[in-house]
Amino acid sequence: MKLRSKSTLLLVTSLILAGTLAACGSKEAATSPTGKPAASTVAKLDPVTLKIMFPGDPPANWSEVKGEMENRLTGSLNVKLNVVFIPWADVLQKRQVALSSAEDYDLIWDNNPYQNIAAGLYEPLDSFIDKYGPEIKSNRSAQLLEANKVNGKLYAVPLEVNFIRPWTFVIRKDIREKLGIAPIKSYDDLVKFMYAVKEKAPDITPYIPNGTEHTGLKMASMLDPKANLAAISNYPGLYTKGNDGKAYNIFDNMDPMIMKNFEQNHKFYQDMILAKDALILKNAEFAKGKAAVSTFNDFGVALSTRTSLEKSVPGASAEAFSLYDPSMKMSSTFKAGNFIAVPVVSKNKERAIQFVNWLNQKDNYDLLAYGIKGKNWEDSGEGLFKPIKESPYAGIPFAWGWNSKLDRIDASLPEDVIKLNKWQRDPNNFTTDILAGFTFDPSPVSNEIAQLSNVGKELYDPIVLGLIEPKEGLAKFKDKAYANVKKVQVEYQKQLDVYLASKKK
């Protein structure tokens, strides 16, 4: 069904639901997709201010967009917004402090909610979504909703537009053209470009990846897509492969492609292709004009990256090169990378879910994601938008509304990038991974995980980034980490076996 037709159906469904609630004596008001009162309304809701925690900094023009959101909410949900932005460097710590001290948040962004779910800090949402969230459900695939339940319950709304974890290399197009190098078509081309930069443009670092994020298992998996390699959460040294339901560690079962990747990165470091301080530098350096190549969590070049680069280096331009291809036969766990959760201490649980549902209505989602139509963006057809360069709005839908049915693709991106984005947003393009629906409970090995995390930062991250010779580094890492790696692996496998056995019943 076309998106416009579905929006009409959802509006009718919302009005029917509101009428049903009114017949039951509810105070809820029926609203249009923009949040304005519909023709048939019931008692007005009392005003509520929702306190919401988000990561990062407020986007440009945020106050204007927030004002328009509250204007639309007046007279319908009657909600004001107290949005607290926490810098990325502090968000993990401050989120845990807020939850443990029962601070009065109503909605919290969480990229890894399972520990907080296990601790009983997030409210189960199934009954609230069934009653107040028709658009929350209809704009998410059944695979996504099911795969992100814990013990059969949904504790946080999954926010995701991608059914794989996309990432891409972003390249200084102006430098490539200045050096007379043809467009990058393969990984070998990319490597040759980085070495040409070192030789002919020595004032810029050839390669600053986004830390270890893409240089480890993600890179190894792209060099051999059929192997289906994937890191197990953030536990250094543990991985899965082959979709066989087994957990492996790099000491007892080192996959050849993982080792090859470690060796390649070490060569980059020795040859001064990779930044010397790669452990602390991130992809923000690219936008400052400091790197010829970096890595980002997306296909194409984000508007914010393009804009920042052009401001930092007049005349500079960027392009993307991806190792992904729509012809790839890949599996997906359908696990979301972002969630919006309601703390158990919230006094406004119903209104919080009503608000999230409001965000999942087309016109409101457009405002949330792209800003004010005609000022910040233009409609470029079904599923597409064009940012207005003079007044861009880098929205934050990933933190409170993301879904693949309403999210638009930047029409100014190259056609091959648009094609990749469309491919990754269709759940039917991927087979279901054996790990889909499985959630590991880390509590039985929490001490081992904490120790492994510390040792991993000290000894594993330098291996991944190539800062030390791989065999030498692995020997030191094994000496300090093997016992903990093995304990976590055994516990992970134990829980996975129970889960897989339950699926066969």
Can you tell me about this structure?
Helix 10 (217-223) crosses helix 11 (256-270) and helix 17 packs across helix 18. A 5-stranded mixed sheet has the order 2-1-3-13-4. With 505 residues, the protein is α/β, with parallel strands linked by helices. The longest helix is centred in the C-terminal third of the chain and has 35 residues, at 470-504. Strand 7 (230-231) and strand 8 (238-240) form a beta hairpin. It contains 18 helices and 17 strands. It has a domain at 3-163 and 335-409: 3-Layer(aba) Sandwich (D-Maltodextrin-Binding Protein, domain 2).
Short description:
With 505 residues, the protein is an alpha/beta fold. It has helices at residues 3-23, 62-73, 91-100, 114-118, 126-132, 134-138, 142-147, 173-178, 187-200, 217-223, 256-270, 284-287, 303-312, 349-359, 362-370, 415-424, 446-464, 470-504, and strands spanning 48-55, 79-86, 107-110, 156-159, 168-172, 205-207, 230-231, 238-240, 248-249, 291-296, 318-321, 331-332, 338-341, 377-379, 384-387, 409-410, 431-432. The strands form five sheets. The protein has a five-stranded mixed sheet with strand order 2-1-3-13-4.
List keywords for this structure.
13% strand, D-Maltodextrin-Binding Protein, domain 2, five-stranded mixed sheet, 18 helices, disordered N terminus, four-stranded mixed sheet, alpha/beta, 505 residues, single chain
